[in-house]
Amino acid sequence: QRDFLLLQGLVYGEWNPALHCIKRFNIDESPKDWTWFRSIDPGLGKTAVLWFAVDRYGDYVIAAELLLDSANIERLVNEIREKDGSRYIVDTVIDPSDQRSLTCPEGLRVLLARKGMPCHSAFGRDVNQGIFRVKEDLIVRPERNRPRCVVFDDLVEFRREIARYRRGDN
Question: What is the pLDDT of residues 1-15, one digit of tens each?
Fold first, then answer.
């Protein structure tokens, strides 16, 4: 019964650091083999940014992270550009729930576009759709003997969040 209470509401029971965390390697040594994407999730107090490197098979590495106060747009843009480095980011997706907030009445998407960093939200507002996609990507694929999604083991914030992410609904 104790285990049930500990796991109650846990979304990513498939997450296993021994399976999904890998040692950092230099993706930029073979830039033609990887395509870069960025994802932005503006929260009420913090904004989280993740960088994904996708290989030619559609497998991907969560390769960089950034967690900053949502209120400081200048710092956010500067730190995103610094983490981008010389990489070409093919696309940036932003959580569609960020239309407006108290700290960003115009919506972060509008402010980022003004700073030359356009974002879109091709994904719907259905949180479950995104959750199920990530869950599928965490399952080991028999034909490749590995999951579709792995993460560099030094991304502390992402690892902490995915391991503890819970929801109260079904």
Answer: 344 444 567 899 999
